[in-house]
Design a protein that fits this description.
Elements: H1 22-37, H2 48-69, E1 73-77, E2 83-87, H3 89-115, H4 120-136, H5 143-162, H6 168-198, H7 203-211, H8 218-236, H9 245-251, H10 254-279, H11 284-307, H12 316-342, H13 348-372, H14 384-387, H15 389-403, H16 409-424, H17 428-453, H18 480-498, H19 501-504
Antiparallel strand pairs: 1-2
Length: 512
């Protein structure tokens, strides 16, 4: 009788901790449920698919509660040590951001799908699939799972951008696709180099392998680390891998642009944090310097481009938010660079806290732009307070949060903890660059805010969704789902401004 290839074949079978994997799993099951349900619903009832998607994301968010109050849970573990999936505080914080951002995107999308006649079943399936990948990625603890989760989060986004049937969506999706595929190919090449040098794909094992790798393999390992960082830097929209952002945001449906600016960025940011602080820990000062330079370039280029946006440019509001998201990515990279110099993951708490704040208020800003509508020119927002007071107040509050000015106190606290992380790590020059960029950003945020309360000029294009011209029959009815999304974002930002410790407490806690 031929002996078995393994001594203990039963040992290859392990139990799966279904509670630990529940958040991304529920999002995946909801995506399948939406796709199947779409086959049987008549066209008049397709709108129910959006509410089914919202229910699935709510269920996924609810599962985070028992995970947050319990101990760290891991599954898909190996006998040699290490696991492929770990639900620790780091993973749960980014899963909250990914799933919560996707839920707000669903509420923003309900009227967009009807108004732009997008295919509902495909739209909701793609959105939930992308959210599943974004929720899986921060819990991944090996390079294979990281790459798969990143592509699950990204590939549906290409189709979401292309769903708009006006030609501009297809062009934006093609640019997004080609640049993303190139970045992924570079990242996979880097992953292969790292595996060759370390002999494992587990993040903790890579750190040990690189620390004890033979001298002749060090150049290969360093090249692999740099190439791996390129792929995640692209997803984060860090300069010089940011060129796809403005055109993609303009060509995509507005809720999808908001989704990419928050959830897509969170996926790339969490992957970047994992590979640097866990896998490439022995090269901390090297990638710390690289990320510090990337952070300085990203915030400077993003804010300078946003400052140059003209008020009479079509889609100027979306372009300004796109460049603003590039600048905000620079702030988010600062604590990652600080972690390299500090030699520990402690500064990452500042990134997590700021990402949660940014995600909430940035999606709120996109929602306010969707409510106002029109051609998207910044001039169209002039005098909005006189036509739609609540929309103007909400948008002004979100912009002040992004700027870090009262009453958007939570934005100010978020910038302070990021600034402190740079100073504590000895990156004084980066703190100075950040301070200058925060001042530069005030110019375009306050300029847009001032337009909202400025007197309307004769001949200025009125923004739709506001009070109509005298000859119009009546104001456009604001969809309840859009009002709910704006209300949730605004209430969340107000609560965090009154009690910022609710989110800033992650700065002092242990993430891993």
């Amino acid at each position: 009788m031929t002996p078995l290839a393994v001594a203990d074949p039963g040992g290859l079978i392990q139990s799966v901790d279904w509670v630990a994997v529940a958040p991304p799993l529920i999002a995946a099951l909801a995506a399948l449920a939406v796709l199947v349900t779409d086959l049987f619903l008549p066209p008049a009832r397709k709108r129910l698919l959006g509410w089914l998607s919202a229910a699935g994301l709510l269920a996924a968010l609810a599962v985070l509660v028992p995970l947050a109050v319990g101990d760290t849970r891991s599954t898909f573990c190996f006998k040699s040590g290490g696991c492929s999936y770990t639900a620790d505080h780091f993973a749960l914080a980014f899963q909250l951001l990914a799933l919560g951002g996707a839920l707000l995107t669903v509420l923003l999308s309900l009227h967009t799908v009807d108004e732009e006649k997008l295919p509902g079943g495909e739209y909701w399936f793609l959105l939930l699939s992308s959210a599943c990948g974004a929720a899986l990625l921060p819990a991944a603890r090996d390079l294979a799972t990281l790459v798969i989760a990143l592509e699950v989060a990204t590939l549906p986004a290409f189709a979401l951008v292309a769903l708009r049937r006006d030609g501009r969506g297809a062009e934006s999706a093609l640019k997004f696709f080609l640049s993303s595929v190139t970045a992924t190919a570079v990242m996979l090449l880097g992953v292969s180099f790292v595996y060759a040098a370390a002999g494992t794909i587990q993040l903790q094992g890579i750190a040990d392998g690189l620390a004890h790798a033979p001298g002749q393999l060090k150049p290969l390992a360093e090249a692999g680390a740099v190439l791996t960082l390129v792929g995640f830097a692209f997803k984060t929209a860090a300069v010089p891998f940011h060129f796809w952002v403005p055109d993609t945001y303009v060509g995509a449906p507005l809720p999808v642009a908001g989704y990419l600016s928050v959830v897509g960025k969170a996926a790339g940011l969490s992957g970047l944090a994992l590979v640097t602080t866990l896998a490439f820990r022995p090269y901390g000062h090297t990638w710390g310097l690289v990320l510090a330079v990337l952070a300085a370039l990203t915030m400077t280029v993003g804010n300078a481009a946003a400052l140059r946006q003209r008020t009479d440019t079509p889609h100027g509001a979306v372009r300004l938010l796109a460049w603003s998201s590039v600048g905000q990515a620079g702030y988010l990279l600062v604590p990652l660079a600080a972690a390299g110099y500090a030699g520990s993951a402690e500064p990452l708490g500042a990134t997590v806290a700021y990402a949660l704040v940014y995600g909430l208020v940035n999606l709120g800003a996109f929602g306010a732009v969707a409510l106002v509508g029109g051609s998207g020119r910044l001039d169209g927002f002039r005098g909005l307070a006189g036509r739609n007071r609540w929309a103007a107040l909400a948008l002004a509050f979100f912009l002040l949060c992004l700027a870090g000015l009262p009453p958007g106190v939570v934005g100010l606290f978020g910038k302070v903890v990021v600034f402190r992380a740079a100073v504590d790590a000895g990156l004084g020059w980066l703190a100075v660059v950040m301070a200058v960029n925060v001042v530069v950003a005030l110019a375009y945020y306050l300029k847009w805010t001032a337009l909202l309360f400025a007197p309307a000029e004769p001949g200025t294009e009125p923004a739709s969704g506001s009070a109509p011209a005298p000859e119009a029959a009546g104001p456009r009815r604001v969809p309840a789902s859009l009002t709910a999304a704006l209300g949730l974002a605004a209430c969340g930002a107000v609560v965090l401004s009154v009690a910022p410790q609710l989110v800033l407490q992650v700065v002092s806690g242990s993430l891993f």
